[in-house]
Specification:
The complex is a heterodimer of chains A (about 110) and B (about 110). Chain A has about 110 residues and is mainly β. Chain A has strands at about 5, 10-15, 20-25, 30-35, 45-50, 55, 65-70, 75-80, 90-95, 105, 110. In chain B, a hairpin with a 3-residue loop joins strand 6 and strand 7 (about 60-65). Chain B is globular. Classes of the chains: A mainly beta (about 110), B mainly beta (about 110).
Chain lengths: ~110, ~110
């Protein structure tokens, strides 16, 4: 069964440093998403991406965040200057239709120290 | 703002019993809903979905019920098994983006 692959599975970074979280969506999917989940809390929407541009973003997705699809297979989330409160699980998801159930990756656990 | 929420944060059931997990939503314009299962350390896994033109949909051992009048969604799991232990989230489609509720932790006792 096709999977969404995320790397790394765990990243530890110093506060103020930049991090890039990587995702390889399912190959024929056109819609891409990032979500985050702070430990013990609900999954929160960050951003959706379609046709090489952001289609929707939440209030969490401020100027510190950016997304990119640098080639035909990767989808990245960059956090420019990490804060302690950015510590969370970050999930990438993809969908072949914008209104259909997504396939999620296993997540990257980001720990900011 | 409008949001998706869950009635119960935890649910404990005996193996073999049926489980019912509830969810209330407040966005009356939502037309698509999904139940996700999240096991520890893993990403959300699609279980079953339903569109607003339906009030019931069945899968393998799972049934989703949608009551648009009271804006309520439920997930029924038949003959609950230990492998069903997880956190279950309902999510609604809002502007083509899925927004999640808070989650219910289901624990299955042997």
């Amino acid at each position: 069964e096709p999977e969404v692959t995320q790397t790394p599975s765990h990243q530890v970074t110093q506060m103020g440093q930049e991090v890039i979280l990587r995702c390889v969506p399912i190959s024929n999917h056109l819609y891409f998403y990032w979500y985050r989940q702070i430990l013990g809390q609900k999954v929160e929407f960050l951003v959706s991406f379609y046709n090489n541009e952001i289609s929707e973003k939440s209030e969490i997705f401020d100027d510190q965040f950016s997304v990119e699809r640098p080639d035909g297979s990767n989808f990245t989330l960059k956090i420019r200057s990490t804060k302690l409160e950015d510590s969370a699980m970050y999930f990438c998801a993809s969908s072949d239709r914008g209104d259909y159930g997504y396939t999620f990756g296993s997540g990257t656990r980001l720990t900011v120290v | 703002g409008e949001s998706v929420g869950l009635h119960l944060p935890t649910l404990s059931v005996q193996e073999g019993d049926n489980s019912i997990i509830n969810c209330a939503y407040s966005n009356s314009a939502s037309d698509y809903f999904i139940w996700y299962k999240q096991e520890s350390g893993k990403g959300p896994q699609f279980i079953i979905d339903i569109r607003s033109n339906m009030d019931k949909r069945q899968g393998q051992r799972v049934t989703v019920l949608l009551n648009k009048t009271v804006k309520h969604l439920s997930l029924q799991i038949a003959a609950t098994q230990p492998g069903d232990s997880a956190v279950y989230f309902c999510a609604e489609n809002e502007n083509n983006d899925m927004r999640f509720g808070a989650g219910t932790r289901l624990t299955v006792k042997p």
